[in-house]
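Interim report, section 4.2 (structural modelling).
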Amino acid sequence: MRTAEVTHRQGTEQMDALLRESHFHFLARNLKKALNAAQIALDFARQSKSEQDILKASLLVATIYNTNGRYLSEPSFFAKANTYLEEIEPLALRSGILTEVDFYKTKSEILLNTGNYEEARALLGKAIVKSTGHPRAEIQLLSLRSHLELLSGNYQEALDFVQRGLEMLERNNELEKDRTLVAEIYNQMAQVLIKRNDFSRALEYSQKVLSLSRELKDAEKELSALNTMAIVSSVKSNYKIAMQYFQEVLDKSEAIGFRHNIAHCLINIGTIYAHLYNYDDALERYDQVLLNYRDTLDDYTKVVIFNNVGNIHYTTDKPLLAKEYFEKALTYAQEKHFKEESALALAQLSRTHTAIDDLKQAEILAYQALEQIELLGDINGKQINLINLGDISFRKKEYHKALELVEKGIEAARKLHDDASEIKGSRLLAHIYETLGEYQKAYELLSAYSTMQEAFVSVQQSRQFMDLEIKNALKEKQKEIEQLTKENEYQALLLEKSDQIERQNQELLQMNEDLRQFAYVASHDLKEPLRMIGSYAQILERMYGSKLDEKAKTYFGYMIEGVARMNSLLDALLKYATVGKSDEEFEQIDLNYMVEVSRVNLSVLIKETKAKITNDHLPTIYGSKSLLVQLFQNLLTNAIKFRKPDTLPEIHINCVETADEYQIRIRDNGIGIALENKERIFVIFQRLHPRSKYDGTGIGLAICQKIIHRMGGRLWVESELGKGSTFIFALPK
Ligand code: ADP
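Predicted structure of the assembly:
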């Protein structure tokens, strides 16, 4: 008796250990190892004939098969999972509510994965009722039910269920400490919020999920959180950050063999590239998906890809290729009754026929599209179709009809925020007016169009620029990863590092982009009214100057001076906004030579102030000539400008070499900078002295900072008030 008890206990311990091990691997999505351990556990359980153990192990084996099926999009695994469940069904139904509920939960998960939503819904409903009084189980079921509603497109219901789960959790102090449960419900909440376009809250929840999942080593929740964060960033046009998140999701999904996720990640990355006008990289991603992961795609996603790829070919003037893809999109969309996508495909296909001058077919397709679109209302594709129909009428010399259609098309494009179509439409409209001899109207349209085009190009350029930055960042990250892998400690360090980089990038990028756009718009648009104030003030003074008294004349003087000053501020701002935006070449550059060039450029100032500029031998670095000259000139000008009244300026430049960077130091004997101002001076428009004492706009150092960032370096100052300053910039070797 006694011995039997001991062996039984030992058996149970071993069993628990195996189940724990399996569960641990399962969480980290190490599915092979998880399955292995669970299956051994099941063998044990069968030998010992312990019903509870058999149930636990079988449920786990089924869950693992189910997940594996989902990862690989492999139906036979779902069937296998089902077999395990069927075996234990009678057992499960008579061994207590919790096991029964667990059984239903696993079963509905399989039904969910095999697309049997109705059955899953019925089963879950039953399980939720049964779980009353067992809040932990009930919350899990509510979360799963919410997931089901999300997949079926019932977003409001999805929200209701997850909300119920969350409230239940918040009412229960004990359960609130259950991190697994909290992660589960928060994750579901984030998924729902994304679908309901509530991005800020989705981000909040997914950030919490991210840290919880990392503590719990739950690979899938971590991926899910990162994915949500990527989507939010992408929606908010923070493409660079989005890309970094997606890349991380991609790497991790590859590591655990989550093929379905890999495919979706590649699609998202491709779509971002397309937004950034980097069509080559976008196509590469889409092709990869179609080639290697087609089996994991649902039909809707396939149609979206075909439409996207077709659109890229159309935009890059490959109408024949475009036609091929739109035709595929159309076939699938019609077959599966995806009405919006099929209308879009029709409109696009028609436009492609117009491009190859096959007007007859173009017209047939366009009217088909029109019919569908009218049923659906203001959907994407409407604008394309109307403008295309206008184009067809124009080509058929039916000008008035063309006018009407294109005008409607432009209006629709505006509503749908499709700048490219709006521009295309305006250009066409101008062309029609021109043909009709209405030159005034054509002219007005063209000039409006050119402003629009300018804005569009500037967005396009800034996105292309972002694309370069992303490439750079990814390359840097790749290098870092290689480095860290070599150093062996990579897990912990990598996580910490990438977190840090993400945070910094997020802040920096957002700030820079906001500032750049603001600065550009402000400096551009403010100049016009300013010019007007200036001119009219001058005219007034010229016409009525003789009638004015001395006081009024002084005021006029102030006014004109103010205008001039604002003008120079705007110039400076514009310069700041555009610095580093041109495609300056990066090459090996001898810094000695850069100092020489700056010295020549500043020769007048140097002579006037009797400044002495000396330098030690400086290294050759990788950078841009035009940026470096600007940098030296700004720093040298400041070093001379902020001299002590009674001392001749003496400036010395030298270089300190560290393991991975060159630090170039520019030391002056000027007035110095107080400790508390050392950071402030690099901020745009920040100055420490009145203009009567030292002239300037406060933008020089901000530009220097930008230049240095562009070259991947850092800039700072060491100084003491009254004792001169040393500006130091460090560039990577
Ligand atoms: P600006 O020179 O046009 O005023 P900057 O951005 O170049 O604008 O400089 C910002 C402020 O930093 C200056 O107004 C000055 O107070 C301080 N500063 C810059 N360089 C020096 C220097 N070499 N010595 C002392 N103060 C300096």
